[in-house]
């Protein structure tokens, strides 16, 4: 198995055929399910609700990776507490008390991730490294599938890797989310991305079958 993890973004599948899509995704040999939870305020969209997440837990053995894109993170973290969730990332831009929120995520038994928008400086996460299990570097402005990678993305991933290493946190992995395409993957991985959120740019690309896309993805890694 490759050291780079593949996390399909489940907001990209047909919501009316979610369970059959889940079974097809499981058969692809992927590493975790990326679940985007949006509130229509922090980002101007809200494609998936907590109902689907709650229903998903008992129906799959794959790890569940929740990416919160919400204004009130603490409210959502408490709602996730009774659910089977393996890791939760919160955006630095909407967490007033980021340190406390991250500590709470670990307290409820999940790995804690900090997500950072394209324009936000890496210094925003410099003092929470003790609290996190991974960093989610956004390579598009969050909210929608099918966008183009923002221009500084590769530099940002590399700078994040360097910041973590220089601070003595070489073990903290970087997840990359947004326009993780066959074309962009090599540079993303070279810069330090080790957990790739796969959406319409790769696994769910319409030009080929999902399994052909996964094979192609693995070849580019
Ligand atoms: C939002 C999502 C999207 C998306 C990724 O956080 O995770 O970034 O589904 O898929 P692409 O960008 O390939 O459509
Ligand atoms: Zn996401």
Automatic annotation (TrEMBL):
Coiled coil: none
Domain of life of the source: Bacteria
Family: Belongs to the ribulose-phosphate 3-epimerase family.
Protein known as: Ribulose-phosphate 3-epimerase
Organism: Rosistilla oblonga
Upper lineage: Bacteria, Pseudomonadati, Planctomycetota, Planctomycetia, Pirellulales
Gene that specifies this protein: rpe_2
Span within the parent record: 322 to 542 of 551
